[in-house]
Amino acid sequence: MNGQPHLFKRGNVYQWRRRVARQSTGIIDFKFSLGTTKLASALILSRKISAESDFVMQEIIEHGITMEEGRLWLAEVIREERARIDRNNMMRRVSDRDPASEIAADDRVRRCWAHIARHGIHAPPPDDADPMQLLNFEFFREELTSHARGYQNLKKFKELTGREVLSALGKMTLLDLMIAGRNAAWNEDRSESQLCKSLLATLPDEVPLGSGLR
User: Fold this and answer.
1) Which residues contact 38 (CB under 8 A, 6 or more apart)?
2) Which end of the chain is more exposed for a tag (fewer CB within 10 A), N or C?
3) E strands in the chain
4) Are residue 135 and residue 41 in the same domain, yes or no?
C-alpha cells in the first residue's frame, strides 16, 4: 500500500503486518494496530516500524516465549495464587474477624482481578468501586508494575524454563499471563491444566503499538 509492503487496513483502522519464517514453528504473523484511520499518519508510523523491524523481529524470534514456556509460567502463577488463597482461608478458621467482612474482602479482590484482566493495569477502576476496592486497585497496580515484580518474574521464569527473557515483548507477555493467571485463580474453578489450555488459546494475535515493543 502506497509503497509500504507491511501497511494494511483492517476495517477503517490501519495496521502494520509482517510474516517471519521461524524454523521451529513455521511462519509467525506479527500484527500491530497503528491506532489511526488517517493514511498520512499510518504511512509515517509504517515507515518507522519497517525501518526498525529487522532488529525487533530478531529479538522476538531469539528471546520470545514459546507456548510450552507460557504453559509452565501460567501453571506456576495459578498454583502460587491458589496456594495464597488457601493460606488465607486457613488463617480465617482461627481468626476472630467477622466472616461477612472476609467474604466481602474476597469479593473485592475477585472483581479487581477481573477488571484488570479485562481492561488493563492502567485502566481506571469501575465507577461503583468502594474505598477498599480502590485501595486494592492501587496496591495491585503498584505491585505489578514495580521493578521488584519484574525481577521476580524473570527469576521465576528462568527457574521454570532454564533460560532468560530479554525482549520487551517477552517481559510484557509474562506480565499479561500473570494477570490472566491470577484472575483465573480467583474467578475459575477449573484445574490448572484446563485453565492454561484455555488462556493460552485466547491470547490476542494483535499486539498494540503501546505494549512496549518499539
Assistant:
1) none
2) C
3) 7-10, 13-22, 26-33
4) no
